[in-house]
């Protein structure tokens, strides 16, 4: 029996046009039409569909209502939403509710075909991964010691709960928060708990790469494409194939590179600098920034469409000042790691020393605390005292 794709559209001409566009490339699929959300839901109660392509605005039941009710009934269902240009914000909300993609009217045929093929490929991978999870449920990979998230504060527990939920999906995640708060740890935790943990985790610090080289770094280049390109080079997207790419400080990326990243997310293809060749890539994208991207969009420094693509799920990492109750555990954790790195006996921190550390303003967050712990272990007494904190920690 052929797998089925459900088209939900109240305009027959558009519905038939979608079928005519897709049936040439998807000969093994049967297309079923529904004229509104309620009719579609009744069909879904009786049978399964590999993919649902649904308009947003329809009589009796809207596309968003159909999405919400269907995912409650059959959580594994894959949706692509069709929307009028003026409803882009509503379409973005549908991504956050669980839709795979959205396409604006008038429909771009190539965009539709690409999105549908990617969605169907993703659905096959999802089923394979689900089977693997059942076979290996007791073998969940742990985050390496270097990237452990330490603490028991409510703020950190909320973050860990979100990580547990998003790790099992392939949704793109935007991680926000101040410098040194631990955004990188969140990214590594998501990768380690995901089905991609056997693949590579490739990090790109967008702020550390000159704007004229960022495209080469991300997408690679061919020999002779620019001065200094003495040989072909693979880009980070290609190196991350089958795994995860982490775009740290994504707010510092040039607008030109942003356009190419957007295309890579939409089409799952990249083109090296100086080449017309397209390379298919299968990567999960995690991004992080300490900037207010909505403000950057208003100032014309960041693409709004890329923001919506990256922020299907947003995780806001709290500052250390918002989780001072975690400082005792963090100090204990860092002192152990630092003693191992230096090859010296571990140092204790007195209770009053910890209390003094909790009173400080940690503008540099977790990273600053680690540096302070190392300084106190080198210069302070054993155990480290409140006097040592007052003497060697300048605020």
TrEMBL record:
SMART domains: AAA, REC. One of its GO terms (molecular function) is DNA binding. PROSITE patterns: RESPONSE_REGULATORY (PS50110), SIGMA54_INTERACT_2 (PS00676), SIGMA54_INTERACT_4 (PS50045). Residues 122-149 form a coiled coil. Residues 149-378 form the Sigma-54 factor interaction domain. It holds the Pfam family Response_reg. GO terms for biological process: phosphorelay signal transduction system; regulation of DNA-templated transcription. SUPFAM superfamilies: CheY-like, P-loop containing nucleoside triphosphate hydrolases. The modification 4-aspartylphosphate is found at residue 55. Residues 4-120 form the Response regulatory domain. Keywords: ATP-binding, Coiled coil, DNA-binding, Nucleotide-binding, Phosphoprotein. This is DNA-binding transcriptional response regulator, NtrC family, contains REC, AAA-type ATPase, and a Fis-type DNA-binding domains.
């Amino acid at each position: 029996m052929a797998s089925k794709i459900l088209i939900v559209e109240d305009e027959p001409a558009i519905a038939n046009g979608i079928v005519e566009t897709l049936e040439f490339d998807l000969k093994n699929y049967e297309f079923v039409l529904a004229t509104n959300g309620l009719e579609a839901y009744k069909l879904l109660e009786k049978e399964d569909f590999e993919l649902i392509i649904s308009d947003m605005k329809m009589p009796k039941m809207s596309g968003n209502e159909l999405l919400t009710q269907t995912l409650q009934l059959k959580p594994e269902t894959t949706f692509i939403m069709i929307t009028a240009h003026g409803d882009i914000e509503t379409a973005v909300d549908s991504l956050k509710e669980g839709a795979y993609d959205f396409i604006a009217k008038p429909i771009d045929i190539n965009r539709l075909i690409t999105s549908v093929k990617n969605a169907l490929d993703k659905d096959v991978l999802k089923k394979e991964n689900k089977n693997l999870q059942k076979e290996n449920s007791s073998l969940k990979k742990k985050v390496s010691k270097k990237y452990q998230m330490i603490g028991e504060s409510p703020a950190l527990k909320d973050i860990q709960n979100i990580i547990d939920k998003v790790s099992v999906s392939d949704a793109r995640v935007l991680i926000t928060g101040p410098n040194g708060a631990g955004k990188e740890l969140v990214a590594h935790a998501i990768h380690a708990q995901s089905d991609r943990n056997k693949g590579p985790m490739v990090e790109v610090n967008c702020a550390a790469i000159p704007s004229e080289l960022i495209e080469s770094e991300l997408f690679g280049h061919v020999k002779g494409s620019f001065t200094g390109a003495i040989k072909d080079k693979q880009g980070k997207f290609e190196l991350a194939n089958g795994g995860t790419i982490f775009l740290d400080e994504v707010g510092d990326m040039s607008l030109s590179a942003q356009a190419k990243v957007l295309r890579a997310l939409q089409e799952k293809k990249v083109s090296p600098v100086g080449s017309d060749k397209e390379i298919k890539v299968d990567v999960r994208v995690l991004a992080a920034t300490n900037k207010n991207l909505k403000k950057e969009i208003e100032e014309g420094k960041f693409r709004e469409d890329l923001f919506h693509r990256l922020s299907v799920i947003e995780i806001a990492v709290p500052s250390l000042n918002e989780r001072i109750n975690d400082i005792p555990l963090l100090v204990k954790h860092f002192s152990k790691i630092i003693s191992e790195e230096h090859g010296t006996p571990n140092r204790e921190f007195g209770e009053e020393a910890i209390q003094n550390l909790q009173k400080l303003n940690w503008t540099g967050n977790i990273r600053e605390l680690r540096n302070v712990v190392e300084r106190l272990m080198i210069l302070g007494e054993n155990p480290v005292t409140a006097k040592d904190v007052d003497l060697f920690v300048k605020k």
